[in-house]
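Dig into these lines:

——
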Amino acid sequence: MNGAVALPLDLPELSLTASGDALVRRSVLPSGIRILSERVPGARSATIGFWVAVGSRDELGAVSAADVRDGAGAHGLAAAALPSRFGSTHFLEHLLFKGTPGRTALDIAVAFDEVGGEHNALTGKEYTCYYAKVQDRDLPMAVSVLADMFTSSVLDAAEFENERGVILEELAMADDDPNDVVGERLFEAVLGDHPLGRPIGGTNDTIRAVTRDAVWQHYLANYRPNDLVVTVAGAVDHDELVALVIAAVDGAGWELTKPARPVERRLGSSAPVTRGSALSITNRPNEQAVVMLGYPGLVATDDRRTTLSVLNSVFGGGMSSRLFQEIREKRGLAYSVYSYGAGYSDAGLFGMYAGCSPKNAAQVSELMLAEFDLLARDGISVGELARAKGQLSGSAALSLEDSDTRMSRLGRSEITTGEFADLDEGLRRLDAVTVDDVQQLAASLIAGSLSIAAVGALEASTFDRVVQS
């Protein structure tokens, strides 16, 4: 494989040999279903994911008939008057495990437990994935069960109300975790009214308010053949996989003979973002304060995303990073301190985090900001660049020992970037990053609007000097 390989939506078949002699194949069925596999030599297990490119950002608020045109709604659903669907994506992730006409919730759980498999789901801001990891011999079962869940969930009314309580408990658990709270507050502060600023799981109010009909409409609008992406990595034969998927969804009554183009990918260009707030304080009598500083970041398809990985590694990505050395090792002001980047189709976020004593929150915030300003002004050294490249190349290679990572890479490649880049291509891009690239990117990021989010025994005045800097 030489360079990244594009994944056109109108290309029926694609096959390539990736690094490590892994065989990657992709089929686009006439119905619009996309199936991707990566066969890994020597693997005895496989991880499978059923994906839909719909996440929390795609949920509709309350829509009146006057507000809806033909083609409105996620992926073009024509709608009449609709209640709010906020929280529907997370709700639906739970409900698909609650039974189909042919399987109860217990049947679904037993199917994986009795073979020692793992199964779960995740809701993101721009996609949802239902996945399982099993031995190679149990892959047909996994395809059958996940396809049944995906195509034929009944969304039973009694189960719906039961699960409402479960989700509220999940939100309560997250609300008790200051790390979860500060992360949500930072997204709201940086991205403002942009849909990506909303919490993935919904809120207590939206989960209490959403109706079964709203979730059902969300399901019908977005769980269709041309929305479905199936990815498998590990011990997998592609032709057998395609046959298994076709048989499973055909048995569910999906129309597979009617031609349909896969849903279009989101545009990979930056949307205007208006900062939600410069400072968001959640005052709680905790022993430790958690503080996050953030700027608008890069979109997921930005050519500088590899440069961002290097910047993040040097700045806050490990024990040798500047933040860790300055704040923890030299000054002993925090136990956990790091930076990260999150990129989506039309917006992103670059953030830094520290957990510290409330009395040190201002000093730690100033130090994080000062270190970022220093990086933006003076850049990084050749030694730091080499160390970052070593860290990133090693972690990338090690992560690919896991079929879960390979399965997720296939899904993100198909849904988000529209290209497949193997380890060799990733290393080539990494090798091309220069110290000037890193300095220029840091200068670009720090020129954006700074937002601060914090949870703890703090007052807004704690951050006066940071906000004014």
